[in-house]
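Regression check, magnesium ion case 398:
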Amino acid sequence: MTDLQGLDSFVERWRAPAGRHAAVAIAAITAAVAGVGLLVYSTGGTAFAWLNLMYLPIVLSAALFRIPGGIGAALLAGLVIGPFMPLYVPRGIPQPAANWMARTGFFLIIGAFTGMLFTWLTAQYDRLKKAHEELLQSHRQLRDTQMELIQAAKLESIGRLAAGVAHEVKNPLAVIQMGVDYLDTSLNAGPDVKEVLDEIDAAVKRADAVIKGLVNFSRSEALELIPADLNGILESALNLVRHELKTEHITLETRLDRSISAVAVDRNKIQQVFINLFMNAVQAMEGGGSLTVTTEQRKLSGEDLGRLSHGKQRFAAGDSAVVVEITDTGPGIPEDKLDKLFDPFFTTKPVGKGTGLGLSVSRTIIDHHDAVIAIRNREEGGALATILFKPNRGRNPL
Ligand SMILES: Nc1ncnc2c1ncn2[C@@H]1O[C@H](COP(=O)(O)OP(=O)(O)OP(=O)(O)O)[C@@H](O)[C@H]1O
Ligand SMILES: [Mg+2]
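Current build output:
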């Protein structure tokens, strides 16, 4: 492998020398032609086999500089042997000048032919290299997609399991809740008993929230996709968390682009995603901070796509997308946790505070919209959630 890499960089450096490399190559070829000329002269002249050595610098020059290189070196070789070509040196017998012409002609043929050959070879090399890179790229894509499929299958089986468990647990929970309510109203209990009852009540509500989350997560009911204005959905989701923002001393900044295309969405589901993201931001900014919500429509760059950890194949560079960004000024997410965010039940919140289902449910919903969600840390601190939606095609006049 390392041998091949060495060969690769050698070929890269010398396949089309320029600048200093070109000067070195030309000097070496000229010296070689002159050297062979001297050798030919000192061994008796052009009638002997040493003359064939002249083809070496010609072929080398054609390899480096293609057809012009081959012809140039051939002419130079013809020039070098010209002065003593007609001479059979040891005996001083002149040779016909046509011989010189023929020799130079052969040099030219070989030079030009090898130049052509190398032009073709280099084109093939470039083509192969490009094909190889494309192959690597699609192999990477295939692997990513495979990982996503495995993940999806995993989620599906968890979903099915969860639906079963939720069903089994829901009814007993309802019985406990009713019991607590009954005891609370009918029992003329002292403060101690009341406290216990309140605790049971809170615990049942927590368990119920987890069950509801699970059911939401596993539910694969058909979505009702209707073209809608994301700005409106964001605003109504913000209205629902306004109270939390206020009590946590979080300032809100919105920059909503009113000219974005409509997007085909299930309004309730997407609102649920936005609320999950807002609540995560609120919970991350204990003691205050600022939440920024922006929308815009733009063409995606390679950099945009590079930031996606999944769903890359849904968009290509240059595609137009409606982009929603939700930024907070919280502590951000530890680097080693970034790839776990969307796992079901991944949470860093204390027991009873978070189920760890918010983001996995959100991602399932986003996936069903053929959209993509990504969360990363910002350089300035805090976390940034980005969602890319495909603009609704119905809106396109074409
Ligand atoms: N904006 C954020 N800043 C910092 N950490 C975040 C942010 N958003 C998510 N996280 C981390 O990702 C974890 C998972 O989030 P997720 O919404 O899936 O679950 P949760 O918020 O813990 O619980 P739930 O949403 O079910 O109440 C969170 O516990 C938190 O550690
Ligand atoms: Mg959450």
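Comparison notes: The CA atoms of residues 266 and 331 lie 32 Å apart. The pocket of magnesium ion (ligand 2) is lined by residues 276, 279-280, 354, 358 (CB under 6 Å). No diff flagged against the previous build.
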